Amino acid sequence: xxxxxxxxxxxxxxxxxxxxxxxxxxxxxxxxxxxxxxxxxxxxxxxxxxxxxxxxxxxxxxxx
Length: 64
Known about the structure:
It contains 2 helices and 2 strands. By secondary structure, it is mainly alpha-helical.
């Protein structure tokens, strides 16, 4: 049952983040920015942020 809560929390966070389309991760056309430094790149790749949110969701549900 806790695993379902983890997955649900993770999906809510991911869908919210994708819905908000922050400039930090996406360019003006809605494409994912590449990893790196520079104006057209991001130092926080979207896949890394999603992985961190997955770990965060796990700890929130299992330690709460």
